[in-house]
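hey team, just a heads up i'm posting the complex here instead of the shared drive bc the drive is being weird again. everything in one block, sequence lines first with there labels, then the predicted structure for the whole assembly after. its two chains so it's a bit long, scroll down
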Amino acid sequence: MAVSGRFVLLVALGAVPIVLLGQAYGLAFEALGGWLVLVLLLGVLDLLLAASPRGVLVERDLPLRVRLGQPARSDLYLTNTGRRALRGTVRDAWQPAAGAVETRFALRMPAGERRLVSVELRPFRRGERRVEQAGIRSFGPLGLWARQVSLVAPGRIRVLPPFNSRRHLPSRLARLREFDGRTSVMIRGQGTEFDSLREYVRGDDVRSIDWRATARREEVVVRTWRPERDRRVVIVIDTGRTSAARIDNEPRLDTAFESALLLAALASRAGDRVDLIAYDRRVRARVQGATGPELLSRMVDVLAPVDPELLETDWSAVPAEVRTVTNQRALVVLLTSLETPGSSRTLLAVLPQLTQRHTVLVASVTDPATFAAVGQRDDREQTYTAAAAERALLDVARVAAAARQQGAEVVTGSPAELPPAVADRYLALKAAGRL
Amino acid sequence: MNAGLTSKPAAGSPAGAPAKAATAASTLPATASATGATPAATPTVRAFFRRWSFWVGAGVFVVLASLVLLLIRGAGGAGAGELSITSAAPGGAKAVAEVLRGQGVTVTAVGSLDEAVREVARAGGGAGGSASDSGSGSSGTGAPPGTAEPTVLVFDPNGFLPIDRTDDLARLGGHLVLVQPDIFTLDALAPSISVTGQVENSSVVEAGCAVPSAERAGTITTSGTAYRASGASGESDTGNGSDTDTDTDGSTTTTECFETGDGGYSLVQAETAGSVVTVVGASDVLTNEHVIEAGNAALALGLLGQSDELVWYTPSESDVTATGPPSLATLTPGWVTPLLLLLVVVFLAAAVWRGRRLGPVVVENLPVIVRGSETVAGRARLYARSNARTRALDALRIGSVTRMSGLLGLPRSAGLPEIIAAVSARTGVPAVEVADVIVNRLPSSEAELLALSQQLAALERRVQVAVGRASPGGSP
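-- predicted structure starts here --
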């Protein structure tokens, strides 16, 4: 049960009879007792006359997914199956991170009628947001005491990663198209594929003239090339403890998601096949064999509930995981963090196994605050901080150098820069035919 | 409480019945005529009590048991004071009182002087006729003649006795037994007797005096306070402590019995013109615990059983009269206390109103928040705490040198001398100075460290400007 503010006011009004009777007849204690009994009787009467909230039928209608940063609407249909009119409050008990704008609604339902309660959700964190119960408080006709029940009405909504980096996609796709039809002067390497023959125009490299074809025709013909297609890209996202660190108020893991989504969008447009593994000591998420528009939707769906685990990533099992995805040569993108030689030792130990078979790209988020700290040397504190930041950068440089020595490509950048940087490196590798 | 009254079983649908209408997120809402209700997480009243029956029962039991205990203890505690005639505790005096009653003495306990005076007046009026018929009131001890008036025992450990009400005190009659009186009481009731001190060690002493009941008792155990006859009785010490002297001015005869040493006595009797005041210092004589030792019982019965009536007067708070200005309580109107109680109730109701949740707290896993710059900050504090100047400067120098060599286009394998030469050539700073900043000087104080690090930054900026990679003042 619950009481209302009206009840509290009613109890407080007892001061009037107490003072009046006490002043006039000295019956203050009697007045107090009488008033309390009266108020209690009224409350019990109210409670007995209140409609039962147990007779309410609750149904939900809400979208399955919403992208982080966009609002969603959760509909709650309430049906009063009891015999009395219900007057009270309903609370839709969403988790706080679901960002319900308002959770309590006044309710007035005659017997047998149905009401719709719409809750606007503005989720502020990625993942699965749930609601388990709807609380209903039913006041009696006097509005003093209420019956209250929590009804089981589960619901869930999946909040997808925002994919803010998709704004970089058009420019990268444009650059991808530029590769098409390039002659060999612009694009060197064994990996480019022969595309077609076309007429020579001024400006084409004479070295790309196909003399045999020219001999067959009456004009000069050049060969054109297009980027290779149908390569494999395997994205491995490290969900271990280092990915929990927040840089620029964004966890490393979310930056990794952004990078993975941009890369996947780009690579699938470029005709490559993208697979994804999120791994720490076991596989937290996996997308395999999805193509076209399905790829991105499956990726965001699978990645949405993945959170950093507070344990050390077991890199030694990663080559085997990659092998389960593909046996071909592939571009393996490791989205992790390169921080100190100590924490990256296991990664560095495994890299040769990967670089032997695949092209490996290691992408790591760096903290722009560290770069900023290096330049601040105005007092003692700042100098020591600058020294520590410099040491951290040197550590990163050492680890990156070690990774390069093992044959991996290394990309670092701040949370805002990393996704386009990874995409650019992918384009560069593709242009160089190294996939 | 939450389940409390929320569910009247008669209200509509059976709560436990399985809901037929699915409430899954994706299903479209059913029509209003759907049967069955949504299951409730809140238990019904019946389920609540079934689930918590043990604890509810245990709670009720504990409350009842403590109430019963309180009643029992309260009944015993009402008369549980020291030397109370209703107390069977070691410190009570129920034994003496009961034995006296068995011998036909009417023992009346009173708590205030008014009551005591009333009792004395009543007994003095009525006992005069009845004293002769029983004869057992003095239990064959040979009651002193003319003792129709009742014996009054005064025991006042808290000093509540209103000694300024001399008229009323005088009406207590001429047969007083003062148990461990303080000096104020002595001043008022027995001015010829004074306190000598506390009796530290309990011992058995001989009476050695001519008071009949003391003589009959023979020996008692000493305790409490010691007294002596005061003032003009200087010559009493010359004897063996059992002498009887008579004051010439007030014709008061004091008798001292049961010497406790140091000139003190456990019993001193003063007799003035027919009224007898007996001061008993050894209060243990009367207690349940010690009454059976030595001749304690004989002394107690002898002293208190001389008359058919015994008024056992223990002054209490009601003897204390209030003085001074009227207190706050008498000035406040009678409705203030009920109003305060009402406010308490209002407060409780408001607490329930505001504090009652509509459903349970919703739980959610929160993400771990680890700031990425924590390692840098931690390392900086470590450097600062241990004054690791050289180490800090080393880090700064290696970073700067690496960046400068990159800016100048030197190979990775370039040695320091080459870098110094290149920097000097590009910026125009003398090579010695560059070498000083880059390697040679060691900081011996914090100020030097600061200066060196700033010079290093300045040098790096000059290289950047010289190479054309940055405007002056840009970050490294």
